[in-house]
Design brief:
293 residues; mainly alpha; 2 domains; two-stranded antiparallel sheet; 11 helices; transmembrane helix; transmembrane; membrane
Length: 293
Amino acid sequence: MLTGQNGDFVVNRTFGEGEKSASLFQTLSLGGIGMMRIKSYTGEPSMFVFTVFPFWVLTFGLNRKFDQLLMLGCLILTFSTTAYMCMILFYSCWIIYKRNFTIFYYISILIIVFCLVLQLNAFKHLLDSMYNFIFVGKLGGESSSSQQRSGAFTEHLFYWSTLNPLNQAFGIGFGYVRSTDFFSTLIVNNGLVGLIVFTWFTLKNIGLKIASPIISLCYKLGLVFVYLIMMASVPEFGYPSLWIYIALGFVIKHMKFETVNTSEIVNNNVLSENIGMKPVLTGIAPAGKQIAR
């Protein structure tokens, strides 16, 4: 009202030449249908993935089905190569940990069905455009995003290689350069010493002793993935989600867990059925699972 201009700095942000809105330039065309990609307030889907992905991994350990499916849907709708690659890696780790190798049978069936759908003219252009946008363009270096990221990465690494040994070790000073990934940003600003210190500080929670093995695994996998996402595609370290997730490890560490004796549960169920009562089990976990208090 005072200036006569729109002061909405959250959703009305503009970037680049021609001042394109951050809420409008992240679009995807699927078979001629224009779609908006889920993204963060900065307008980058990869930064949304950086925020959501570790908490999605943690939902597997906490057995939060609704949150798990909700976050999975959001990650899929980002159409981010970072999200899809990290999901493939996580599901591979999860299958190996659970030793549920029968899932490969169902995956094979899905692949066969997917290949059959590709033969239909109604879906061919739709799936081709999605595949080319997410994988071929990014991994093949054909998209503008891939070219900008690879160009910025090599440029910053080349600049670091031309510095004197002291600057290579300790950097030129925090905040001088900003690349499209945190690795090349950090190594120029803070050098090898800064990169090692930040890596240690971020990943030191891997050594936390968490009582529940499955929650411990999911938390630590989420920590590794958020570090990899940041180093590969997100040059920001000030997002609250990163520090919240790091601090969350100490909260989980002090949570109390109790293991349920499943043999007593079975005996109680048999006894209640014999006397004609319907068993009501509250807060009971299956064998091998634990309940957090």
